[in-house]
Fold this sequence. Notes:
By secondary structure, the protein is α/β, with parallel strands linked by helices. It has a single domain (31-191, 207-244), classed as LmbE-like (Rossmann fold), CATH 3.40.50. It has nine helices and ten strands. The strands form two sheets. It has a seven-stranded mixed beta sheet, sandwiched between helices. A three-stranded antiparallel beta sheet has the order 1-2-3, with no helix packed on it. The longest helix has 17 residues, at 150-166.
Amino acid sequence: MNAERExxxxxxxxxxxxxxxLVTRPASHLPPATSVLVVSAHPDDESFGLGxxxxxxxxxxxxxSVLCFTRGEAxxxxxxxETLGRVRSVEIGKAAVELGVxxxxxxxxxxxxxxxxxxxxxxxxxxxxADRVRADLLLVFDEGGITGHPDxxxxxxxxxxxxxxxxxxxxxxxxxxxxxxSLNREFKASFxxxxxxxxxFDVTVDRARQHRAxxxxxxxxxxxxxxxxxxxxxxDREVFRWLREPRSHPRSCGxxxxxxxxxxxxxx
Length: 268
């Protein structure tokens, strides 16, 4: 048998046969989707963390949408702005245009208080938006919230609570463990990273539009050395892992016909 030869490829791993042993490696392409819904906690999460992925999905023809639970009014960046929540609401709208996002729903749950909200209530919000945009894939922050932020963790928990009932797949943006270790060492931060064996996708991305979207969040990006260092360490790579893998027959919430809007800010 050849020392190395191509084996099988699934939708999320590449399998190679090396010296009679099957070795899996992360796939170099994102999974297919027709409508991707981001479930996030704060304005800027869709750009700072998920911007490159949103652009990649859009380039493949997917509709992209964002559900954001809070207006980010408790951020320590830009805290001198008395109307920070309103400022950040405008920023996410501008960033969505740069990312090619077609639908944004911005709620008014308390920043730094999302973890105190009932999971069933938050999951119902995810259900309603997912039905409106006919989502067939949810995109979230990795378990642990990447940085350990409780709001990030709660947003992901809400997406999972809905997905478990609806049968929708949930893909998590993760951070390479070497990147996380470097950030933690340099900034005394608490980033959680994943090893190569823990991720299903390791893709090359174009960050041009993500960078433009980030600059739309001027209140949060201007004095944010951790953000820019993370992006430098990541280069053109992003890694992802399944939190819930695809099923054959996802179920609808039965909320009604889909709506496609450029920007929407419904009340909580």
